[in-house]
Amino acid sequence: MTRLLLALAGVVLLAVTALAAVWLLGQLLTGLGLFIVGAAGVLGRLLWFLLITGVLAGVVYFVTSAWRPSVRAPVRPFRAPPVTPRPAPSRPKRGRAGQPAAPASVSPTPAGPGSVSAAPVPPTPAETTPTEAAPTEAVESGPATSGPVRSDG
Length: 153
Description:
Oligomer: single chain
Distance between the termini: 106 Å
Shape: rod-shaped
Number of strands: 0
Largest sheet: none
């Protein structure tokens, strides 16, 4: 009889253990299923977001390209107008007590080798170069291959 009771206790214990294993497996699969469903929801919303932003970005690109000029004129660098020196005052130079100043006469002295001349050397005038006048209107030309684009609007 003891054998029969031990066998019966073993079968009941085995059934309870199997039932616990099945319950635990169900809990794990339920958690995994919830994770998969949640991830699918997040990925679905991400897909909708990417689709909507892609469509809106295409619309923005299309609309902004409508404001580009059809002919691209090259942009010339800005050049400031040349600075013209102001003329010197026309009044004569005056010396002491209102008398006209006498021009200083410098007698040229020949400088020999090794001697230092005390006569001042007049400065040479600065050379001026003509500058090109900036155009008042844009020059129509073919499409530019690179560089910035100037918009007239």
